[in-house]
Amino acid sequence: MARTLYDKLWDAHVVAQGADGQTLLYVDHHLLHEVSTPQSFELLREDGLTVHRPATQLAVADHSVPTHDRDAAIADPQAAAQVALLESNCAQFGIEYLSLTGQGQGIVHVIGPEQGFTLPGITLVCGDSHSATHGAFGTLAFGIGASECGIVMACQALWQTKAQRMRVTFTGALQPGVTAKDMALALIGKIGASGAVGYAIEFTGEAVRGLSMEGRMTLCNMAIEAGSRTGLVAPDDTTFAYLKGRPRVPHGADWDAALAYWRTLPSDPDAPFDAEVIIAADSIAPHVTFGTSPDQVLPVTAMVPAGEAKLTKALAYMALTPGDAIDGLAIDHAFIGSCTNGRIEDLRAAAAIAARGHVAPGVRALVVPGSGAVKRQAEAEGLDRIFIDAGFEWRDPGCSLCVAMNDDRLPAGARCASTSNRNFEGRQGAGARTHLMSPAMVAAAALAGHIVDVRVYA
Amino acid sequence: MTPLVTVTGQALSLPDADVDTDIIYPARFLLITEKKGLGRYAFHDRRDAPGFPLAPGVETAPPILIAGPNFGCGSSREQAPWALAGLGIRVIIAESFGEIFFSNCFKNGQLPICFDSETIERLRSAADATVHFAVSLDAKTVTVGDAAPIPFEVDDGRREALLNGWNDIARIRALHGHDIAAFEAAQQASAPWLWTKG
Predict the structure, then answer these.
(1) CA–CA dist B191, B186 (Å, integer)
(2) What is the pTM of this model?
(3) Is B49 in the A-facing interface, judged by CB distances under 8 Å?
């Protein structure tokens, strides 16, 4: 029978079937970070258990780490203790830990692909909802909770319910100035924040095939904001070219064997999907969120709409009124970074705009590379100088203003143009207001002091 | 895990849609590495809002929560169900849930129940009128006051685990240890490149 990519990934990892339709699914790789695992290790410790296959686990601290003065001790005692606890737990249970001062540190979803830890055809989990990012490689990747992290460490398997299959096709090619971030926001705007609950999304179509791996990661990263735990792109030559030669990727004869298998993964031509969404990529404009849910989003050329109670409440939080133009909204903060848009191509796109001017008076703009490797690459290309000369702050890698767990936190009432993935109430600090957009759009907003259509720079 | 068989008492109504786990448990409290004692942080930044059903400082709530659609969307943070558990909430009823949150509830002896919007509105009115609720996982019903019990659906496996308070890790190891070993032997043969580091 014809099968989708998701079906093939699922079928290859079935350990046992439960009586109630749940499947015990084998987990090949597990990424750990400091926030979702303290209680997971405690579960093991309570029952005197060990980690089943330590070599399949990789840990890094990213959420609560400071993004400046990396060589100094972490000033916040709670954050310092949390990072130290991850390190000592990894040491005790034999898990490799990429230290804060080492070359490999970065945001968990940025370092997985960089390290070649993310591979096509495998299952990969992490105690973070943006684990969907890794689906860009044709990896069955999804976010789990802390209890499930403990189960994976002890058992290498998880009870899961198979999702329905949704195909999202982006027809045509993207217009200049429009990115994978705009594709993701356009999709979420169309189907809603819960539009893909219960579905695993496969992204297809000319515009998807035309994306780099980094663009595909951005697209899959945001699948969770449409309610799906899983976003997938079928692996192809773009995927294989990205992977070849990375540290943990198979080499030699193993590479050839793996590649032969990976080429069997794409959905069969007549494979059935349970839901279809089609979006004309060539008609997508740069998108900006205006509310407190990622589905409250519109083209930058639009006006803030009126709506029902939910929207009225969101607009009150955002201090906006129906009829306000999105283009022209004054901002006082700008953030370029996160697991959505903290990769080298994102920084290149932002720097190309930053080079055109200087951050507007009254705007504080941060650039936080997604990993140490991204930071070194950017510095080798001179992007750091462009940002610094234009008045941006150049930071060390971490989640930073995406989750606001460290000292990168906005005051109440601040309005931020952000490349991150969530515009929830309080996400960047209690009372702070977030507008999601692409890296080039954030850079443009930082220079203008207000949200602006990046296409004016074309 | 604490077994859940029946839960009785009043219900708390929170009708807002898309209440994400950042609202349930704000990020800055994620620096805490414990899972107990988090009830005081639940909905921390919403408590001052006019009409919000929990006042600042309150550390207990009724055992049943009638939530809005897409409750628990967003971050996978299990601190969200832990914080609700800290308030004493054992049953959460909504039209739909964020999937990771839904799964996390079961891992912590909490029961999420889905009903259609019409049924939710009936339950919400009852909650607002402080009518007594009785949730039976055994019978798979919610009973409001003297009305006829309303049946709900739940996966058999999850129901059994909740009723018995079963520990997932111990169960998987005891019942499926040999299945996992067999899977691993087969994968080592078919995809050796996944095993070069053990």
Answers:
(1) 8
(2) 0.97
(3) no
